[in-house]
Amino acid sequence: MLSLDLLLKESERIEPVPQVIHQLMDLADDPEVPVSEITELILYEPVVTANLLKLANSAAFGFKKKVDSVHDAVVLLGLKRVVEMVLLNSVTKPLKAAQKGYGLETGRLWKQSVSCALMARAIAEKVGVSEKHIVFTAALLKDIGVIVLDRHTGEAMPTIRRAMAAEGLSLVEAERLALGIDHAHLGGRIAGNWNFSRALVGTIQNHHLTDGVDDIPEAAAMVYLADSMCSMSGINGDLFCGHYAHYDRICDQLGMSEAAANRIMSDFFSRKENIYGLLAVL
Fold this sequence. Notes:
The chain is mainly alpha-helical. It is 64% helix and 0% strand. It has helices at 4-10, 19-27, 35-43, 46-56, 70-77, 79-90, 92-96, 108-127, 132-141, 144-149, 157-166, 171-179, 183-193, 198-205, 218-232, 247-254, 258-270, 272-281. Helix 8 packs across helix 17 and helix 13 (183-193) runs antiparallel to helix 14. The chain starts with a helix and ends with a helix. 43% of the residues are buried. It holds the Pfam family HDOD.
């Protein structure tokens, strides 16, 4: 069985989310925050500034005028979208690598993570929650533990696949059986080491809803629903396609009709090529 301390030590090779992200997220839901306060935060991060302007000027957004400053980017895109773009860029490198132990080719984990984050945001907007950035961030980082576990899954993968096929276990249940830990719990611990909030850590750890489903927090429910949509849409790798055991219940809890859920998936697919074009810029 794998040592959690050893895995957390190995996770240190993943470049942590920049501190500016935490500051931006604290401001993201404050409608009174002045643009100058946001721009000042980002301006002190030259790499973040450069990447933000590169993204804002990409064909995916199609602005007629060049975006030459952080101020212009915030005004044109909105604070929440800027926070999302900075976060997307900060976790690009580790998520884009191939995860061969899990059967994911180069870029696959990145695409399923970003797709889940965007669908989760759409769900949050439909439901009308206030802290949309927590839902988006948790959906984006929910599989960060896969990056660390991947090198340990080679010998254990036959056991994991057999448990999932023969015993009907979910991926996280099969990981616990074979490895003594699962990617969701590990991902939450990594997020905790990156100083993310307790709510965000808990959402990452429970996004599969395998640990007590009597009282499901709203954020975890939305990430679960978005992840299920990605599985239904063929975006997730085969190991990550769950059984949707709680899908109907979560839709009821969130007040999400089948028509609304289908519309979110359809809207995403209509914009998929533009979205993946944006990913190529990151």
